[in-house]
Write a structure and sequence with these properties.
Blueprint: E1 9-10, E2 13-14, H1 15-26, E3 31-33, E4 45-47, H2 55-66, E5 71-75, H3 84-92, E6 99-104, E7 107-108, E8 112-116, H4 120-128, E9 143-146, H5 148-154, H6 167-176, H7 179-199, H8 204-207, H9 218-240, E10 246-247, H10 250-264, H11 269-288, H12 292-295, E11 298-302, E12 305-308, H13 309-334
Parallel strand pairs: 3-4, 6-9, 10-11
Antiparallel strand pairs: 1-2, 5-8, 6-7, 6-8, 11-12
Helix pairs in contact: 2-4, 7-11, 7-13, 9-11, 9-13
């Protein structure tokens, strides 16, 4: 492609950062196997490929060997639409297995799979014998397949398994994204960018401003935006797992907000801004990954009325951000 696939940008962000965002939701540790020093910019542990002539299998073996934990999720750096719910399905199938690998159209998706440390010896033996196909070590371990039907129950279009090995595949991946999800993503990203720009460079005094003596500080308004996005994203993820809509209770939410304000009413600015940025990135990544069928899933219920993922992503999330930004502006004006 004339450039490292990991750094190709979609909607202004390198693909590799999208991969990292999703893996952080489901893994205790994220590391990168690469020989390019540029990956150190991402702030993660970078492990040099022990088998540079071993292809994908060499990279997988390096990662499995370097990982802290027994179960290791392996993802390619060129998969822009990964989904946390699909990874959770893979993890759920791992009891009693050495490897858990999705299978689509009769082919293993070996670069969207789980491998345990028990695979490391067989992997190394295969590499030593000059076998570089990832599946070459499968006969020596317990492999559990994740059937295509189970994957499609969560991701009907299997967009989470899409990678971009060629310019044509990149164009196809971009064109095949739901136009509606792209529009919803843009709305969330625009609102979030405005909020980040406003709060990032505030002085400590401004950060603690309030519109009223008993009102929330600018810092807590910012913290609340981030935690609200996290909760709203949880509604969507419930629906993607096939669970019933989340029962939203306004009184319970107000009580929780009051309790949170008492505990976190003066959060530290750098940590809170970083939290907001992270939650925005995770939210944008999730909405970007959704197909048209996903957008029509019902994900939240209040007062007997249900709202779809499309409504939450298109109205609730942007209004949540803009509403708190208005409150922040009032607090800054009063302060």
């Amino acid at each position: 492609m004339g450039q490292d696939k990991a750094w190709i940008e979609l909607e202004g962000r390198p693909i590799v950062t999208r991969v990292i965002d999703v893996l952080r939701e489901v893994a205790d540790e994220v590391l990168i196997v690469a020989n390019d020093p540029r990956f150190a910019e991402l702030g993660l542990r970078v492990v040099a490929d022990r088998f540079p002539e071993g292809g994908a299998l060499g990279g997988i073996a390096t990662g499995v060997g370097a990982a802290t934990h027994d179960r290791v999720l392996v993802a390619a750096c060129d998969m822009p639409f990964l989904r946390a719910d699909v990874w959770r399905l893979v993890v759920q199938r791992s009891d009693g297995a050495d490897a858990v690998v999705p299978k689509v159209g009769g082919e293993y998706e070996t670069l969207h799979a789980l491998y345990t440390k028990a695979c490391l010896g067989p992997m190394e033996r295969a590499l030593g014998a000059g076998k570089m196909r990832v599946i070459s070590f499968f006969p020596e371990v317990r492999v559990r397949e994740v059937p295509e039907a189970d994957l499609r129950a969560l991701d009907p279009e299997l967009r989470s398994l899409t990678n971009v090995n060629t310019p044509e595949e990149l164009a196809a991946a971009t064109a095949s994204r739901s136009r509606r999800s792209a529009a919803l993503t843009a709305g969330i990203a625009e609102a979030g960018a405005g909020e980040l720009a406003r709060v990032t460079e505030l002085s400590p005094v401004a950060w603690r401003s309030r519109a009223a003596a008993d009102g929330w500080t600018v810092g807590f308004e910012t913290w609340h935006i981030a935690r609200g996005l996290e909760r709203q994203r949880g509604w969507i993820e419930r629906s993607l797992r096939g669970e019933p809509p989340f029962p939203f209770d306004l009184d319970a939410t107000n009580a929780l907000n009051a309790e949170s304000s008492a505990r976190f009413g003066d959060p530290p600015q750098p940590d809170t801004v970083a939290l907001l940025r992270r939650e925005l990135e995770r939210t944008v990544a999730l909405v970007t990954s959704l197909g048209d069928a996903d957008l029509e899933r019902e994900c939240v219920e209040t007062d007997g009325k249900r709202a779809s993922v499309r409504v939450v992503a298109g109205r609730v999330m942007p209004r949540h951000i803009s509403g708190h930004l208005e409150a922040i502006e009032k607090a800054l004006a009063a302060g």
